[in-house]
Amino acid sequence: MNDPDIKSDESLLSDPEPWESWETALVLWCIGLGVVGLIILGWLVNTFILP
Length: 51
Fold this sequence. Notes:
Layout: H1 3-12, H2 20-49
C-alpha cells in the first residue's frame, strides 16, 4: 500500500458528519411516506377504477 491509499482509508473511517442523524431520519420518513402513498393509491385504484 502506498500513502494515498492509507489517507483515503482513514478518511472513510472518520467521525460521522454532524447532520448524519437528521439525514437518516429524513430518508426514513421519505421511504415511509412513499410506502403509505403506494398503499393508499393502490386501494383507491382497486376501489374506484378496477371494478
